[in-house]
Amino acid sequence: MVRSTLLFIVIIISGWVQAAHVLIPMDESQKNHLKAYGIAFWLLQNNLGTMP
Questions:
Q1: If you ran DSSP here, which 8-state letter would residue 28 be given?
Q2: pTM, whole model, 2 decimals?
Q3: Is the pLDDT of residue 15 over 70?
Q4: Does the pLDDT value for residue 19 go beyond 70?
Q5: Which of 24, 27, 45, 49 is CA-nearest to residue 36?
Q6: Within its chain, how far is the Cα of 3 from the centroid?
Q7: Fewer beta carbons within 10 angstroms: which end of the chain, N or C?
Q8: Where along the chain do its domains lie?
Q9: Which residues 6+ apart lie within 8 Å of 21 measured at CB?
């Protein structure tokens, strides 16, 4: 019961919180580099910018 209540609270809070940055790992743990590059390309196309 406590676990489901905590999960519910986390879900509710996550709807209110918005991230200012998105971290896309580009090391060996990232298996789909094309997806990460596609996200960066989309950001640049829409003038949203990227960070190194």
A1: T
A2: 0.40
A3: no
A4: no
A5: 24
A6: 24
A7: C
A8: 20-52
A9: 51
